[in-house]
Amino acid sequence: MTKSAKKAKSTAGAKPADLSAFIKSMSSSMIDIDAVTDIQRKNMEAVLEANRKAAEGYQSVFQRQVEILQQAIEDSTGALKEQIKSAQTNPSPEKHVAQARSNVEAAIDNMRELMDMAQKTNARSLKIVQDRITKSIEELRAATDR
Questions:
Q1: Is 108 exposed, middle or buried (0-12, 13-18, 19+ CB in 10 A)?
Q2: In terms of C-beta density within 10 A (0-12 exposed, 13-18 middle, 19 or more buried), how is residue 50 classed?
Q3: Sign of torsion, CA 25 26 31 34?
């Protein structure tokens, strides 16, 4: 029987009036309160760090969306000017189909890029939390094994 288990057994018959003494003796013998407090502080720091990384990542995703939109506007303006010129001479349906295909392929590529950026952001944030959970479990074991 461990030292903390013996102490817990000896105080198990404590009267309700002695409850605070019982809790104090249990907490001082079984768990290092300072260690648990430190563990929780580290947990909160990890959550804050994960949130910072997520915010940074999603800000990058948003900036990329703006860049994509600006490029799409430029491309559309150029295509429209080209269509106006070609309409005056001889409209080519093949050219319009090729332009439409190119626009759809670019949109799909852009969506993939944005999804990849968001997925990497989520993975980085999740890794921070997962690593902290693992470390927290190890620290809690050490705090209760005294």
A1: exposed
A2: buried
A3: negative
Q: Does position 97 have pLDDT exceeding 60, yes or no?
A: yes
Distance of alpha carbon 114 from alpha carbon 125, whole angstroms: 17
Tens digit of pLDDT for each residue in 20-35?
A: 666 666 555 567 778 8
Neighbours of 57 (CB within 10 A): 19
How confident is the model over 30-57, as pLDDT tens digits? 677 788 889 999 999 999 999 999 999 9
CB 22 within 8 A of CB 4: no
Q: Please give the structure tokens belonging to residue 4.
A: 């903390």
Distance CA 13, CA 3 (A): 17
**What single-letter amino acid sits at 126?**
L
Instruction: Specify the residue for token string 């209760």.
Output: 144
Q: Is 122 exposed, middle or buried (0-12, 13-18, 19+ CB in 10 A)?
A: middle
